Amino acid sequence: MGLVGRDWEDHRGCRSQLTLAALISIVLLADVADEDGCTFAPAINPDTERLLGAATNLPPTFAARQRHFEEAKERRLRELRAELVRAVIRLDRVI
Question: Percent of the chain at pLDDT above 70?
Fold first, then answer.
């Protein structure tokens, strides 16, 4: 007799987990092998260096990174609002 109902679902889930684990192992082994023989050295422009520098200062957890970027967004919005107010004041003086 074959697998039916819940037994079949459990079998499929286990099989897919094993397949996923095998694929991850293959990819990781391939990555390690590639690192040894890799001769690729990309040219890094100043913008990329700036982005990489900013990325190294990021908080380690997802929630902390969300807070970090939300605070950066709010800070930038405050700066833009202040710049807009200054521009309106200058324009008002001219008129």
Answer: 64
The domain ranges of the chain are: 1-41, 45-95
From residue 15, alpha-carbon distances to 9, 24, 29, 44 in Å are 10, 14, 21, 43
Q: What dihedral angle (degrees, nearest 10) is formed by the CA atoms of 71, 72, 74, 75?
A: 110
How many CA atoms, within 13 angstroms, populate the side-chain half-sphere of residue 8? 5
58 three-class SS: coil
* CA–CA separation, 17 and 60 (whole Å): 28
Whole-prediction pTM value?
Answer: 0.41
